[in-house]
TrEMBL record, chain B:
Domain of life: Bacteria
A Pfam family of this chain: Abhydrolase_3
Species the sequence originates in: Streptomyces albus
Keywords, ordered alphabetically: Hydrolase
Cross-referenced PANTHER family: AB HYDROLASE SUPERFAMILY PROTEIN C4A8.06C, ALPHA_BETA HYDROLASE FOLD-3 DOMAIN-CONTAINING PROTEIN-RELATED
One MF term in the entry's GO annotations: hydrolase activity
Gene3D superfamilies xrefs: alpha/beta hydrolase
Protein name: Alpha/beta hydrolase
Lineage: Bacteria, Bacillati, Actinomycetota, Actinomycetes, Kitasatosporales
InterPro entries xref list: AB_hydrolase_3 (IPR013094), AB_hydrolase_fold (IPR029058), GDXG_lipolytic_enzyme (IPR050300)
Automatic annotation (TrEMBL), chain C:
Gene Ontology MF terms: hydrolase activity
Keyword Disulfide bond (UniProt): no
Keyword Ubl conjugation among record annotations: no
Keywords: Hydrolase
Alpha/beta hydrolase fold-3 domain: residues covered: 88-294
Protein name listed in UniProt: Alpha/beta hydrolase
Length: 331, 328, 321
């Protein structure tokens, strides 16, 4: 029986397997799949039995997702422990190429689940909009913060190291991220990083929401984005639900890379002719592409309104697309 | 007179039905006292103790200040904060008591170390709508307010009920949504009684076959709603089938038999939930009459029904709350 | 537009699988993708696999629609004894892809468990072979199966029909044909997330437009390949689109399952309801947050286990185990 990642490699060798593993666990954790779901995921991704021992109680799942109760495990390798829990994969002999990453992600998931069991919670309470403000203020007091103190929250990848400032790993709609508290504006965070807006400490959830969006808008050329500098675009981004992409966004996502490039150039260029020069294409070809794109998009991207629509959709597309670079074309 | 052909009863459960039907004829307004005098057997305290579960009674303040009794049922020695089950018993709105049907939730108490609270809401016709659903809502509020002392994690609270209890559970979940609390992570609606309008095909098909026939159903709804039954003056909390906005309700589990009056309204409610973007799991068991899993638990379809229901509870309690990043 | 249509969410474990497989299984399959669909899937059921399960396979040429030759495979346990129950299998693939081995993983356990004989048919595919070729081929294969039942070790009085997705629709259509043509007797029909309705007007179609697996666009494509311009008009038979049947009396007891997060949800619930209204027995399961075909794509998940267990239990009860 082929394990899921192996099957994917056979079908699509270009695919980034580590990214898939990260995505898989991110979704499980964000959507609240629970310990059994995490174990089933670890088992199917690795092709071997995955296990967890939490406060003395052992759960194991095989790659078909069924519980394994037979005594006598094969070797627990690799294994990670923290406090009163341990997670592992069971393998004799050669480790699989992704075993370490799978166990690491499994551990992250268990850490989160266990963290939620603590009745009083950790730093994540401060940025949780679902908690009553009274609870958040109580937590702020533990960090010796007045509710009115200006703070901002930083968003970085989940596997970045802590900076010494209060932080927590939090599941978000973009996967697991690390939230870090910034009071003085002097932190030197790892990149990529999104800086949230400055808010009263008792309104930290708003800053966290902005930080997530800012992080989402970073890329290789701009590895740090400050939500404050997004201006009114932050409002647009906050209003958007990436789970229900707008048709304008879906239209952009449906374009292949070359068409997307043509579109971008058409929007930015002064004229069809200068666009053709920039693209290295004949003027009449670019004309034809412009007409086709207008038809596909449902609007003309070279009108004033069309340009604004395109820019808005492109912004929102960056909030929708997966973290991995988009595939080059239809499957 | 047009006769609807109807899906037959499952052979295994039909035998049990034949034995019982003599004891439970169609319920009329006049026969309500008799129905109340001959209740379904309930689990005794000894039976609970045999599986390591204890029961204690508490007082709950309800609708218009009345005091109601509720039972708290949990594993002996339960500590910490675990899942909670707010249970509402069945009995057609006119009969039953708080321990009726506890056998269905007992596996969840044992398996998941859950704490159950089951309330003795006041019955129609002496206490017509809105007493029953408001009593149930008050009990839910009490449960959430006393969660810590009960050993319940308020973020892991389910509501559950069968038959009239299922309808009241659906109505209470609507109230909880519209009154901004308490929060529920799921609603288990077992062959729920949802629709006073008595106009489904399954109502006609099971006019006089099965355990809860059409006439009994009319009696129950008439007792609850009086002359309002079937009119515009029925709230969605009394008859959840009438609700047009189901958005924001907790994920539901709905089951019923294919051979009972409630089949069509139960399927319709599940459909309405999906149409509102709410999660729901639906099972319709072939040839099951109303309450077949309680009456014939050893039969093939009852065992399958119980397994499916218990599986949903396990998956729901095993899962956690969604993300804390962002507004959603 | 679908961006404002709220829909039930996917099950968490299944959403994780979608996240990983999204670019391999896009929500919308277009007509241009048909060749790719036909090539893509690696063989699901090989002879090695069958042998490992103690099963044998024999291919037989049988007459299909208009007498043209089509192929069926007869699969049974190597150690089969006497006459066993029969399973007539119609594969899925949106009416435009797949072969007689597609999706067989769901049915093979029944062969092993109940010592059954399974006949799986390679009906001709749309668009090259539009309606009525697919369902008529399926019916012809069923007739052959019943006629040769005893020769292949099957008890003709214990014959089920089973199919998933387009195969579920074809199974339902074949069952209707068998009723109307006084054809082979069936003791049950297993309709796994069946594709029953060409009219594209359910709420679940609108909810799963551009999202999930086998979305609205794919579905319209499949039905159009099958029916051409007739799709959505009055000129569609109940055998092609069983959702259009108004008389369901006399059909065999049905098992219907589906996910809550796929296009077929509402038409499958409607078909079960129509069966009950006609006095026909039916068992129905809608699994919360299941996308189309999740039991095949994500068999390791809790929901897939539950779906498979419920289905297998029905088969066991129906075959009298």
């Amino acid at each position: 029986m082929h394990h899921l990642v192996g099957r994917l490699s056979a079908l699509d060798p270009e695919a980034s397997e580590t990214l898939r593993i990260v995505s898989y666990f991110d979704v499980l954790i964000t959507r609240g799949a629970g310990l059994d779901g995490l174990l089933r995921g670890a088992a199917v991704l690795s092709g071997t039995v995955a296990g967890a021992e939490v406060r003395g109680r052992v759960s194991r799942r095989d790659p078909d997702g069924h519980p394994v109760t037979a005594a006598g495990e094969t070797r627990r390798s690799p294994e990670m422990s923290h406090g009163d829990w341990t997670v592992w994969l069971e393998r004799d002999g050669e480790p699989g190429p992704h075993d370490a990453m799978i166990v690491e992600r499994l551990a992250l998931g268990v850490e989160l689940i266990e963290g939620r069991r603590r009745p009083e919670g950790g730093f994540e309470v401060v940025i949780d909009p679902a908690r009553p403000v009274a609870e958040r203020v109580t937590h702020l007091a533990r960090h010796r913060l007045d509710p009115a103190t200006p703070v901002r929250i930083l968003a970085t990848a989940a596997d970045t190291a802590e900076t010494g400032a209060p932080s927590a790993i939090v599941p978000t709609r973009y996967g697991l991220l690390r939230a870090t508290l910034d009071v003085f504006g002097k932190l030197d965070p790892p990149e990529p990083v999104g800086f949230g807006t400055w808010v009263r400490a008792d309104r930290a959830p708003e800053s966290w929401d902005a930080a997530i969006i800012a992080l989402r808008l970073t890329d290789e050329s701009v590895p740090a984005v400050d939500a404050t500098e997004l201006g009114a675009m932050l409002l647009l981004a906050q209003a958007y639900d990436p789970q229900h992409p707008h048709e304008d966004v879906r239209a952009l996502a449906g374009l292949d890379a070359r068409s997307a490039e043509v579109l971008r150039t058409l929007v930015e260029a002064d004229s069809i002719r200068s666009a053709a020069v920039a693209l290295g294409m004949h003027h009449s070809t670019v004309q034809a592409r412009h007409e086709a794109l207008t038809h596909t998009l449902g609007y003309d991207p070279r009108t004033n309104a069309g340009r604004m629509r395109y820019i808005a959709a492109a912004l929102l597309q960056r909030l929708t697309a997966p973290a991995a670079p988009a595939p080059a074309g239809p499957a | 007179m047009l006769k609807y052909s109807r899906p037959p009863f499952d052979p295994e459960v039909e035998a049990a039905l034949a034995a019982l039907a003599e004891q439970i004829p169609a319920v009329t307004p006049g026969s309500i006292p008799a129905l109340r005098r001959a209740p379904l057997p309930v689990l005794s305290d000894e039976a609970l103790l045999a599986v390591g579960v204890t029961r204690r009674d508490v007082t709950v303040r309800s609708h218009q200040g009345a005091e109601l009794v509720a039972s708290v049922i949990a594993r002996s020695g339960h500590t910490g904060a675990g899942p909670g089950i707010y249970h509402i018993h069945g009995g057609g709105m006119i009969a039953g008591e708080r321990m009726t049907g506890v056998g269905q939730i007992l596996p969840w108490i044992v398996e998941h170390d859950a704490v159950a609270v089951t309330v003795e809401y006041r019955l129609a016709p002496e206490f017509p709508d809105p007493y029953p659903v408001e009593d149930c809502y008050a009990g839910l509020v009490w449960t959430a307010e006393h969660a810590a002392e009960l050993g319940i994690d308020p973020g892991k609270l389910l509501i559950a009920g069968a038959s009239a209890g299922g309808g009241l559970a659906a109505g209470t979940a609507l109230l909880a949504r519209d009154r901004n609390g308490p929060g529920l992570i799921g609603q288990v609606l077992m062959c729920p009684m949802l629709d006073d309008r008595d106009r489904t095909v399954s109502s006609a098909q099971y006019e006089n076959a099965g355990l809860w026939v059409r006439e009994s159903n009319r009696t129950g709804w008439d007792a609850l709603l009086g002359e309002r039954r079937g009119t515009d003056r029925v709230s969605v909390y009394a008859a959840p089938a009438r609700a047009t906005d189901l958005t924001g309700l907790p994920p539901a589990f709905i089951d019923c038999g294919s051979a009972e009056v409630f089949r069509d309204e139960d399927v319709a409610y599940a459909t309405a939930l999906w149409h509102s973007g709410v999660q729901a799991e639906l099972h319709v068991w072939p040839g099951g009459f109303h309450g077949f899993d309680m009456v014939a638990p050893e039969s093939g379809i009852a065992r399958a029904a119980i397994a499916a229901r218990n599986g949903w509870v396990a998956r729901t309690l095993g899962a956690r709350l969604p993300d804390t990043g962002g507004r959603r | 537009m679908s961006s404002s249509v709220s829909r039930p969410p996917f099950d968490p474990e299944l959403e994780a699988v979608l996240a990983v497989l999204a670019d391999r299984i896009p929500p919308t399959m277009t007509a241009e993708m048909i060749p790719g669909m036909r090539q893509a899937a690696p063989a699901e059921v090989t002879d090695e696999m069958l042998k490992a399960s103690g099963l044998t396979r024999r291919d037989v040429a049988v007459p299909g629609h208009l007498g043209d030759e089509i192929t069926v495979s007869v699969i049974a346990r190597e150690d089969r004894q006497g006459l066993g129950p029969g399973i007539y299998h119609t594969h899925g693939g949106g009416m435009v892809s797949g072969d007689r081995f597609s999706g067989l993983a769901q049915a093979l356990p029944w062969v092993v468990e109940h010592d059954a004989v399974l006949v799986t048919v390679d009906y001709r595919l749309a668009p090259e072979y539009p309606d009525p070729y697919p369902v008529e081929d399926c019916y012809a294969g069923l007739v052959w199966t019943a006629e040769h039942a005893r020769e292949i070790g099957m008890d003709p009085d214990r014959l089920l029909i089973a199919g998933q997705s387009a195969g579920g629709g074809l199974a339902a259509g074949t069952a209707l044909m068998a009723r109307d043509r006084q054809g082979p007797d069936l003791i049950g029909q297993v309709l796994m997330y069946p594709m029953l309705d060409d009219r594209d007007r359910t709420v679940s179609s609108a909810q799963f437009d551009g999202v999930g697996v086998w979305d609205r666009g794919s579905n319209v494509m499949g039905w159009t390949a099958l029916l051409g311009e007739r799709r959505g008009t009055d000129d569609v038979s109940v055998y092609a689109a069983p959702a259009r049947a108004t008389d369901l009396t006399g059909l065999p007891p049905a098992f219907i399952d589906c996910g809550s997060a796929e296009v077929f949800r509402d038409e499958d619930v409607a078909y079960a309801t129509a069966l009950w209204h006609a006095g026909v027995q039916a068992e129905l399961h809608i699994w919360p947050g299941g996308f189309h075909g999740f039991d095949l794509t994500a068999p390791h998940t809790a929901l897939a286990h539950a779906m498979t267990a419920a289905r297998n239990a029905w088969v066991a009860r129906t075959l009298g185990a």
